[in-house]
Amino acid sequence: LRFGLASMPVTLDPRYATDAASARIARLLYQRLVEFDDSAMPRPGLAHWELVSPTHYRFTLDSPRASFSDSSLLVAADVKATYDSVLDPATASPHRISFENVAAIGIEGEDVVDFHLHRPDPLFPGRLGLGIMPRAALARDHPFNREAIGSGQFEVLAWPADGELRLRRRGDGVRLSFVLVPDPTVRVLKVLRGEIDMLQNELPPELIAYLRARDEVRV
Q: pTM score, two decimals?
């Protein structure tokens, strides 16, 4: 399947993903502690949580446990390593400001992660939408910006310089290519000619209305 993008992702590293393309593709490659329902309310992703005290949230990873694309199992230490990396000033993650209220992160065994806060924050679970990364790869400074190792539904096949990003769905092997097509009219024409199969957003209203009137296109 070929997906037309107005702009390619800047990075595959969720610690630095701030542009729309990077953030959306990161969601295909990485699972998160917390997801969001249709009302944009937080719901369990990799883990469910409980409020132990006003400044203590406990997250317990659900079973069966997720695995990364390198076949290693995702455990509590990976969660801690991910957020420790974001909180490290040397990492220079733009997401660090969202976690300034975190005083400490602890783990118990392979399933439990404790977030201790400086002050109460009833909205804290909704801040934990960062993709979880493997601690071993973080420790060796793996180049996540081009070579993702995540536990999401997709894994990276290739991303040649200035070329299309190719992913493979881990469950059934379906391949997905992201192709840069900056001009919205050209993107629409490529869909109608069958050169790409999908596109998302960044279309003027008149093009959307035009596509809605076409039987061969689903909007």
A: 0.92
